[in-house]
Amino acid sequence: MSTTTSTSAAFELQATTLLRFATAGSVDDGKSTLVGRLLHDSKSVLSDQLEAVERASASRGQEAPDLALLTDGLRAEREQGITIDVAYRYFATRKRRFILADTPGHVQYTRNMVTGASTAELTVILVDARNGVVEQTRRHAAIAALLRVPHVVLAVNKMDLVDYRESVFAAIAEEFTAYATELGVPEVTAIPISALAGDNVVEPSAVMDWYGGPTFLEHLETVPVSHDLAHCHARLPVQYVIRPQTAEHPDYRGYAGQIAAGSFRVGERVTVLPSGRTTTISAIDLLGVPVDVAWTTQSVTVLLADDIDVSRGDLIVPAKDAPATTQDVEATVCHVADQPLTVGHRVLLKHGTRTVKAIVRDIPSRLTLDDLSLHPHPGQLVANDIGRVKIRTAEPLPVDSYADSRRTGSFILIDPADGTTLTAGMVGESFAAPEPVKDGPDDDGWDF
Predict the structure, then answer these.
(1) Whole-structure pTM over 0.70, yes or no?
(2) Phi and psi at residue 383, in whole multiples of 5°?
(3) Predicted confidence (pLDDT) at residue 230 exceeds the cutoff of 70
(4) How far apart are CA 255 and CA 142, in angstroms?
(5) Cα–Cα distance measured from residue 123 to residue 285, given in angstroms and rounded to the nearest whole number
């Protein structure tokens, strides 16, 4: 076993918290180079991977290894020098474990950023110090705001190409922070870096002594993981009904699933939705062992005191904190399929473990991310479009607002003909309000 592998294994044992983060930025801003530098300087790269990158770089006539090749794995990505698909990387330091999603920068791959950032607690938005805040920067900031990502890092890259001037960094940070605040982004941390030279990525820069903040890695290791779902509304989507009917367990009936948010305790009164039947948790099994309490992300089997009709797709919630069920869903969506989404489109809506038939009743507006203006009643959404939709479902659904729960406030629309994912949706308001919300809605009932 190589030294690098042994070190990584040791880190895994010591690191206790997990941070999911995504990178975004315009083409050639240096996302893949930043990720490669982060992995290389934090000693998260295996020796054979580094040797492969060195050989590929030498074949191109490059003297130094091109660290971007550590993440751009597709042949087309290497040939064109761009990121096309979302590349996931898993690594750890002594302080924290990480799941990283390196997302594309091209406008036509906006849907890929939505995919990569949908589960992220932090989004890194890169800016080329020579170009400043550009259209795609604003687009990525808006998507981070739409997805309610708690933390945003503005990485002002290529500072070496502007002579490491503080004034350049300060102007870019001020402009971006003002725009992000307008969107309702709760926190922005600006860091000046040079991914190519390694300045402020893992090690502090010796040529930017005017910057007194953390390095990029230091911030990733110390940013509060404030997404703690254990304190959200408790939700357990039922994935499977366990009924062994054996001599040992003749009457066992358990409801298995992964807790999406909150926690559940034995003896707690719960309601099963959409039926609305109420009962008590009589037992909780975790990996075959009885426990008194279970919480977010644990996969458990819950036993109920009463024999009520519960099946896959149902949602178990605290009786005192049950969401309302509805057949009319209003949401902001990002259309990810090549075929358009149109008014009258018949789809399948997948929410948690439940899939129901639905129809698109209306598309009130399409959002222009460049200036946050609205194009009213476009009639359809095409690939990478973000807009508002009204959907009618065939059966009632217990949905939360996306602002309250990113897990149970989200859904996808599926083509019933071939199973293609059409659209990713977020229930409720689009952006977090930077100031108190208006007393009443607009004339058409939609607030942005």
Answers:
(1) yes
(2) -50, 130
(3) no
(4) 39
(5) 36
